[in-house]
Structures are given as structure tokens and as C-alpha cells.
Design a protein that fits this description.
This protein has 460 residues and is an alpha/beta fold. Helix 2 crosses helix 7 (234-259). The strands form two sheets. The chain has a nine-stranded mixed β-sheet with strand order 5-4-3-6-1-7-8-2-9, with helices on one face. Strands 10-11-12-13 form a four-stranded antiparallel β-sheet, with helices on one face. Strand 10 (367-372) and strand 11 form a beta hairpin. The protein has twelve helices and 13 strands. Helix content is 28%, strand content 16%.
Length: 460
């Protein structure tokens, strides 16, 4: 009789434990300009829902991604490992014919967040962009995700697809439903995310709400463009309208979490996959106050809006001043879900929740490194070194010089030499690239370091 009582007690305590596990929602934007949200200083674009999420959670003032373009950045986020450490250095966009397409994606040897959370009792869903490989063995439904609604390649038309379409006109894909015709892609991604929450509110879930907006093509709904008709730059009008619609859909996701009674026990992280893509002429976005943009390792390419909300655990209206990166998402989620990461798992990220709750002090990411095509960079404390092939290394104090306008390498030769050595030792210890993008991008990225970027918010 006692044994039966113990069994029943264990069953109920297990159920209670499962209910106590937090839900996880990652909302990721694509190519979002750092300065194009209300809470990051935009004077033109209104984002009340994202702003409310920011002010109700923790604003990470030094939020980073592990690469300045979509594919590698998302590979790092999804694995908690610096993607360079498993050869995912480049976007898998039309690699040269000498590379094997069976390797154009996230290596099957790598575990995703969904893989980690499944044994801990979680159901996982990807709604939106994947961009980690289109061959069957790379698809999200074969990488731990239970429910997937997505499209191939690295983006999609916002209004239409074709039954036999390719590229941005490819048909939508799903493993749990027949996709409905596209209305507006951002709305559809938001609606699928809302439906996922409603279906799975009674057990722990991980939702990866992966928006294409405001990535190209530059397309918005007419009624949203009308909101910004006062902006003279027509491209920025459309871009602002795309951000508006993204904000509306972030609001829908948050409202659904509240309606379903799970908001207080849900971790919501909002970020962009990299900095905004800044055109040299007639720029439609701004990464102000940071210099640079998508494709390069100046702050404008890798420093992104980054919000962490967990109403039941994190104090609203706070700002966190040390660096946190997208690599920290996986280990933080696993720890919060009751899992354990061992040294042999080679996770590069850190569980940052003890730092956000002030249980731990200090800098969880005192040293960070990046490598992308022609460039590499290392940040140690407030010092950041950038290595390029056609000039001497550059050194910036990113606390005192956030726009990286004052190269002080000549004043700190010993620091430069030491950081170069650390960066170089990491560089030669990494595996071969799985593939490379077309060679034309190397010069484009190198030239982008010499562009004069707008560091001031548009006023009109």
C-alpha cells in the first residue's frame, strides 16, 4: 500500500515538475537595423509591442550574434556553438560547383535546441525561416522539431508562391498541415506561431518564431506603407511598413501567451540574426549608433537588438550591461529546463540566467571571437580587434568608442600582438569550411569596411 502511495506521489510530482518547466519562445527578425526600433532610439518607426516587451523584461545593451549574415548566425544560435568550430563559415547560397551539396547545411552531427529539449519533455515548433539546409537530412523536422512550417533557401516573396516555383517563389512546406496560400508572409508567420502556442499550451514548448522581415524583397502591405507616407525615401517607407507589421505580429504572439495563461512562465527572447543591410546609396535603414552592417564585423554587423523576458523570474525594466550572445540561448534554455550540459558537449555559449537574476556577477562573455570570409575579430573586455587582409589590424575600445571611429592600434602594440596571437591560434584550430559563397562577396565585404555610415537617427 505504501509502495502504491509512493508511486502515485511520484507521478503527481513529476506532472507538477513538467508544468513548472518554463516555455521558450525565440522571436528572430532578419536583417533588422539596430536603430530602427522605438526602444533603440528610432524617431520614425513606431514599434510599441517590441518596446513593451523590452521595458517589461531585460534590455541587453551589448547583444551579439556569432556571424554578420543569416545562415551562420542562425547555425550558432541553434547549436550554442560558434559555427566556425564546425565549418559553417558562410551562407549556403549558391556555393561553387566544387562543393558537395550534401554538406550545404547544419552538420547532422550538431544538436539543435530542439534536440536538447526533447528528452526534457518539450514539444518544439519552427514557424518561418530555417536557412540551415534544404536537403532532407538538414530539414528542421529531422533536427528535433515536431512541427514545422517553413520555406526553402534564405528568404521568400511576401505575397505569393508558385506550385513549381524556385527560390523566393518556392512553395511553403509543412510536416503537420497543408500550407494555406500566402496572405502576407509576416502575418502568416505570426499566425502560425499563435496557433502553435494554442495547440501546446498544456505542456512545455519551444517556439522558434523565425520571421523573414525585414529581409529582402522589399514588400509591404499598402495600408502599412500609408502609415509612413511622410518619409521621403520610398525604400525606407516600405522598410518602415515591414517593421510595423513585424511589431504587430510580435504583439500577437505576446498577447496569445497571456490569453493562454502561460506568459509568466515563458522565456521570450527577441533579437535580429545580424545587423541591417546598409545600401551605399539611398539607405533604407540605420544601425545607428553603430558603424557597419550586414556582412562585416564592425559593431553594426554583429551587435543587435536583444531582449530577454521571463516575467516570473526576471525583473522588468532592467538593463544588462555586459555582452550576451545568441550562443548563450541554448545553454540557458537547457539549464532552465532542468537539463545538464557537459564539458565534452563543446558548447561555446554560457547559461546567462544567473547573471540576469544577479545571482552571479561579472562578465559571462569576457572573450568573444568571430570569423567571416575575409575578416576575423576578437573582443576581450572592452577591447575589440579586427583583422583584414589588406591593412594592419584595427583596435577599438567599444565602450568609449561605440561607433569604432578611432583606431588606437598604434598606441597599444602589445595588446594588438597578444590578441592577434589568440585569434590566430583559434583560426588555425578550426576545421575546413563546408563550402564557400561565391568569390565576388569577398571584395564586396572588404570594401564595406571603408564606407561612410550614417550614425545619426533620421529625423523626418
Amino acid at each position: 500500500m505504501l509502495s502504491l502511495f509512493v508511486l502515485i506521489l511520484s507521478i503527481f510530482s513529476g506532472a507538477s515538475s513538467a508544468q513548472d518547466k518554463p516555455n521558450f519562445v525565440v522571436i528572430i527578425a532578419d536583417d533588422l537595423g539596430y536603430g530602427d526600433l522605438g526602444y533603440t532610439g528610432s524617431l520614425q518607426i513606431k514599434t510599441p509591442h517590441i518596446d513593451q516587451l523590452a521595458h517589461g523584461g531585460v534590455i541587453v545593451e551589448q547583444g551579439y550574434v556569432s556571424a554578420p549574415v543569416c545562415g551562420p548566425s542562425r547555425a550558432g544560435l541553434m547549436t550554442g556553438r560558434n559555427q566556425v568550430n564546425f565549418g559553417f563559415d558562410n551562407n549556403n547560397v549558391k556555393p561553387g560547383p566544387q562543393y558537395n551539396k550534401d554538406y550545404f547545411g547544419l552538420p547532422v552531427t550538431e544538436k539543435t535546441i530542439a534536440n536538447w529539449l526533447a528528452p526534457l519533455g518539450y514539444v518544439s515548433g519552427l514557424m518561418g525561416k530555417w536557412h540551415l539546409g534544404d536537403e532532407p537530412h538538414f530539414k528542421a523536422q529531422n533536427r528535433g522539431f515536431d512541427e514545422v512550417w517553413t520555406y526553402p533557401v534564405g528568404g521568400h516573396d511576401y505575397f505569393r508562391s508558385e506550385p513549381d516555383g524556385e527560390g523566393y517563389l518556392s512553395p511553403l512546406e509543412s510536416n503537420f498541415k497543408t500550407p494555406q496560400p500566402i496572405t502576407y508572409l509576416t502575418d502568416d508567420t505570426g499566425n502560425e506561431s499563435v496557433d502553435f502556442i494554442r495547440r501546446h499550451k498544456d505542456k512545455p514548448f519551444f517556439l522558434y518564431a523565425s520571421f523573414n522581415a525585414p529581409h529582402a524583397p522589399l514588400q509591404a502591405k499598402k495600408e502599412d506603407i500609408a502609415r509612413y507616407k511622410h518619409i521621403k525615401n520610398e525604400k525606407r517607407q516600405i522598410y518602415a511598413a515591414m517593421i510595423h507589421n513585424l511589431d504587430v505580429n510580435v504583439g500577437k504572439i505576446i498577447a496569445t501567451l497571456k490569453e493562454q495563461g502561460v506568459y509568466d512562465n515563458t522565456v521570450v527572447i527577441f533579437l535580429s540574426d545580424n545587423g541591417g543591410s546598409v545600401a551605399r546609396k539611398n539607405p533604407r535603414l540605420t544601425n545607428a549608433p553603430y558603424r557597419g552592417g550586414k556582412g562585416i564585423l564592425l559593431e553594426g554587423g554583429i551587435r543587435v537588438p536583444f531582449i530577454v523576458s521571463w516575467p516570473g523570474k526576471l525583473e522588468a525594466g532592467t538593463r544588462y550591461h555586459y555582452p550576451i550572445t545568441a550562443l548563450d540561448i541554448l545553454p540557458s534554455f537547457v539549464a532552465a529546463a532542468g537539463g545538464r550540459i557537459e564539458k565534452q558537449d563543446n558548447i561555446d555559449g554560457v547559461n546567462v540566467f544567473p547573471y540576469l537574476t544577479m545571482e552571479k556577477s561579472g562578465n559571462p562573455n569576457a572573450k568573444l571571437m568571430w570569423r567571416f570570409t575575409v575578416s576575423a575579430s576578437i573582443r576581450e573586455g572592452d577591447w575589440k580587434l579586427i583583422r583584414l587582409p589588406d591593412r594592419l589590424p584595427q583596435l577599438y575600445n567599444v565602450k568609449l568608442d561605440v561607433a569604432e571611429q578611432h583606431d588606437v592600434a598604434s598606441k597599444h602594440p602589445e595588446r594588438v600582438n597578444r590578441l592577434l596571437k589568440v585569434l590566430g591560434q583559434w583560426d588555425v584550430s578550426t576545421p575546413q569550411h563546408l563550402y564557400m559563397e561565391g568569390a565576388k562577396y569577398k571584395k564586396i565585404q572588404l570594401d564595406s569596411y571603408d564606407v561612410e555610415y550614417n550614425l545619426i537617427q533620421p529625423q523626418e
